[in-house]
Design goal:
The structure is a single chain. By secondary structure, the chain is of the alpha/beta class. The chain has one domain: 3-Layer(aba) Sandwich (Rossmann fold). It has an eight-stranded mixed beta sheet with strand order 1-8-7-2-6-3-5-4, sandwiched between helices. Strand 7, helix 12 and strand 8 form a beta-alpha-beta unit. It starts with a helix and ends in an 11-residue tail after the last strand.
């Protein structure tokens, strides 16, 4: 965490200098990892004692007034694979691979403090760029049994899903969906059960993860938000590592620390700062 907060603090000062020099707000483009964030009075100068993170990275503020553009940004690595945003998800993949060279990281859960902070966008795009790796099989699992979004983001119509597997009504083979155009398998959500927390913490969930690990090189799991519900903790405890998504100008220091207290700190691979604003010209970006 120390490197995360130090990077965010440096980025804040740099952004102020650029804004004063240019006289205009910075433009919404993906920065180099953790180099530029907007003013955040609630971000601390120092992390909570005893916390650490494997990496930190930043993703652009992607705006879209319509529902269609909101869905499209969740799969930008598929629709615009050569874009700078897609490159940042590749950088995220590379950072996770670097950690995986030191210890097993086959299953990666993606979470956030609250809904609508960008965790599904991160999970989908990370899974897409992971599936593009040579000789690597990737699986994307929607573990949000309350507000599932992955099937919508990828334009899928699941006939069976997570709930059916966990209740014994279907097998993994029954529920898997292949995505068009990329080598990515998806386990989506169809039915929304009345007992999501119990299902995600069940022996059947553990067995599902173990079965998937025998088939796939990297499994990305989109979890529910971590605060207020036990669902995310139940999933992250079954994974090799967790990435937390933080939204600029939204997620507070208190929220970040609360999530790190709830989740198993050694499993936190790092943080992704979502929704940052940076100067296009500094990175040679052509829109």
């Amino acid at each position: 965490m120390a490197r995360v907060y130090d990077a965010l603090k440096r980025a804040e000062e740099e952004r102020k200098q650029l804004t004063r020099a240019a006289g205009d707000p910075v433009a919404p483009v993906v920065p180099e990892p953790a180099e530029a964030a907007r003013d955040r009075d609630d971000l601390p100068d120092r992390p909570a004692p005893g916390r650490s993170a494997g990496f930190e990275t930043g993703l652009a503020r992607l705006s879209g007034p319509t529902r269609g553009s909101e869905i499209n940004k969740r799969r930008i690595a598929m629709l615009q694979p050569e874009s700078y945003v897609a490159e940042q998800f590749r950088a995220l993949r590379g950072r996770i691979d670097a950690i995986a060279s030191q210890r097993p990281v086959r299953t990666v859960s993606i979470t956030s403090a609250f809904p609508d902070e960008g965790k599904t966008t991160c999970a989908v795009n990370l899974a897409i760029v992971t599936s593009m790796s040579l000789e690597r099989r990737a699986l994307l699992i929607d573990c949000d049994l309350r507000r599932p979004k992955i099937h919508e983001a990828l334009g899928l119509r699941p006939e069976l899903g997570m709930a059916e597997i966990l209740t014994g009504a279907a097998t993994l083979d029954d529920a898997l969906i292949s995505t068009d155009g990329i080598d990515l398998d998806v386990l989506a959500v169809r039915d929304r059960p009345a007992n999501p927390s119990e299902l995600l913490g069940s022996p059947e969930m553990r067995a599902l993860i173990e079965e998937a690990k025998q088939r796939y090189d990297r499994i990305i799991l989109d979890t529910p938000a971590a605060l207020g519900l036990p669902d995310a903790k139940a999933v992250t405890e079954l994974c090799d590592g967790t990435v937390m998504v933080i939204r600029a100008d939204s997620t507070s220091q208190v929220d970040i620390q609360a999530v790190l207290e709830i989740l198993d700190a050694p499993r936190i691979l790092g943080l992704v700062l979502n929704g940052v604003d940076v100067d296009q010209g500094r990175y040679g970006y052509a829109g």
